[in-house]
Amino acid sequence: MEAADVGIGAVAGGGEGERSSSSSSSDDEASPTAAARRLLSTRGFTRITYVHIHECEDFSMGVFCFPAGATLPLHDHPRMVVLSKLLYGSMRVSSYDWVTAPRSGTRKGVGAVPRSGGNIHTLTAVTPCALLDVHAPPYAEDLGRSSTCFSDMPVPALPGYAVLEEAELPEDFRVVGAPYVGPELLVDVDWYD
Ligand SMILES: [Fe+2]
């Protein structure tokens, strides 16, 4: 799976073969190999941009495109499995798992460097990059599947551990949307009972 497979055209340090279909970009050079493809040029993105590809009751799929230095704050994915693949660029990921049950009242507990999946994570783009994300099942607030943001405070006496506390999203944080222009998705799911 590469960026072009989901209609994403930006390639860090390269860019050969891109064909822009984004109205926000004037870069419209088409190479013979890309002529048949519609690619969204993400070069000019200055904010984290989500390209939504698909959602059904079983999963959702999309691509987060990051400008260099952008961060998705620490957040969780309760009752979901998250599969992520970096399509291009370089990204720093820190993740935690709960090691004690959240206390009553506020959602506060102790996280640790991941031992079973790291379902609480923060992502920072080192270079412009794109991340394919699959959430299974998808977000559903009424079913207890919504993200919460956290702050993390290292525990000096326990290297690798931190206290996580529910936090507000940073005020200037915003994810914008961009259209999916890649190949049509055909979904054929066989579930094993
Ligand atoms: Fe996430």
TrEMBL record:
List cofactor names only.
Answer: Fe(2+)
Could you cite one Gene Ontology molecular function of this protein?
metal ion binding
Q: Provide an example Pfam family for this protein.
A: PCO_ADO
Q: Which GO terms describe its biological process?
A: detection of hypoxia
Q: Which InterPro entries match?
A: PCO/ADO (IPR012864), RmlC-like_jellyroll (IPR014710), RmlC_Cupin_sf (IPR011051)
Under Enzyme Commission nomenclature, its number is 1.13.11.20
Gene3D superfamilies in alphabetical order: Jelly Rolls (2.60.120.10)
Q: Where is the composition biased (Low complexity)?
A: 20-35
Region of interest (Disordered), ranges: 1-35
Family recorded in the similarity comment? Belongs to the cysteine dioxygenase family.
PANTHER family for this protein = 2-AMINOETHANETHIOL DIOXYGENASE, CYSTEINE DIOXYGENASE
Name this protein carries in UniProt:
cysteine dioxygenase
Species the sequence originates in: Setaria italica
